[in-house]
Amino acid sequence: LLCPCIIYGAYIFLPFDAPLLTTVSARLVYTLRCAAFATFPIVLGMIVSGISRLCSSALEPFGELHREVEIHRTYVSQSIHLFILYFFNMAVLATYLPQELLKLIPLLTGLFAISRLIFWMSYAIGRSFRAFGFSMTFLPLLAMLLWNLYGMFVLEPENLLS
């Protein structure tokens, strides 16, 4: 319930508009540029993971990992998988959205980045708290996937493979 409210509030109250994008290639480049910002939590996680591995007091470098190192490694791995799903869904979504709704592309990118950071913090606190951050990442992805399938099979079935 929180994700649609955040996206709607940001869509209404943030004072920016998407540039005029008339071709599919321009929309994909716009999506690619927005998606670059979504990699910030992943790169930050890689840096922290490397530092925690370096500062770990393990005598055996390839031995069993400490909990602190394992948390960051798992976060980075899961974030990369979710980013791939996010990026492909966002690229398809950008081809189906009308011009006036292209403002959703950077808003969804920001939601993805913030929700990954929330997941990371809550995962470090305890495993029982991570559901909120994961749902803020996964449920918008699920909504994008459903909208993309609806767009492909219902709105424009004649352009499915073209």
Automatic annotation (TrEMBL):
| Keywords annotated in UniProt | Membrane, Transmembrane, Transmembrane helix
**Where is the chain membrane-spanning?**
6-30, 37-59, 79-97, 104-125, 131-155
A GO CC annotation given for this chain:
lysosomal membrane
Source taxon at top rank: Eukaryota
**A GO BP entry:** regulated exocytosis
Q: What is this protein called?
A: TMM79 protein
Name the species this protein comes from.
Panurus biarmicus
Taxonomic lineage is:
Eukaryota, Metazoa, Chordata, Craniata, Vertebrata
Q: Which gene encodes it?
A: Tmem79
